[in-house]
Design goal:
This protein is an all-alpha fold and 154 residues long. The chain has one domain. The protein contains four helices and no strands.
Length: 154
């Protein structure tokens, strides 16, 4: 699934004219720039699977918690790759002469873009929300067991 999404993204980038000819479809820079999008697609897939598990009769808190944690981690990784990973990998490839250094010129080691920061913060918040929901589910289960035991006592 993740590989299929990455191939689709590279194809879309090529179709939109980001690569100048059919020979550059497998350009390493284009593939690297598409890498964070694969993590964002996985985040959507993780949220979808959480709702699917709930719709199939799973408990709300565990199903949504697992989806939130997986989606949050994927979004945080995608944002980190977008702002730090991809520019530095492209710079390393350009320094070794594997890609055209004139086409992909980055200054500094970090791309400060508020969209990347927002995606990363939202990803971390979703991960924390998922952990909180998981903890709430454990407390609810414990309270239910105690309530059942108390009803047996009386």
């Amino acid at each position: 699934m993740l590989l299929g999404g990455a191939i689709l993204i590279v194809g879309i980038h090529s179709f939109q004219g980001l690569s100048s000819s059919p020979d550059t479809v497998l350009d390493p820079a284009v593939m690297l720039q598409s890498l964070p999008s694969a993590f964002y697609l996985y985040a959507l897939w993780a949220i979808r699977s959480g709702f699917r598990d709930f719709a199939r009769g799973g408990l709300l808190f565990p199903a949504i918690a697992a989806g939130c944690v997986r989606a949050g981690i994927a979004m945080a990784i995608g944002a980190a790759l977008s702002s730090v990973g991809v520019p530095n990998l492209i710079r390393a490839l350009a320094d070794q002469g594997l890609i055209d250094s004139q086409s992909y010129r980055f200054q500094g080691y970090l791309i400060f873009d508020t969209a990347y920061l927002a995606a990363g913060v939202i990803g971390l918040a979703m991960m924390l929300l998922g952990r909180l929901l998981r903890h709430a589910a454990a407390i609810q289960e414990e309270a239910s067991a105690l309530r059942h035991e108390l009803e047996e006592f009386f």
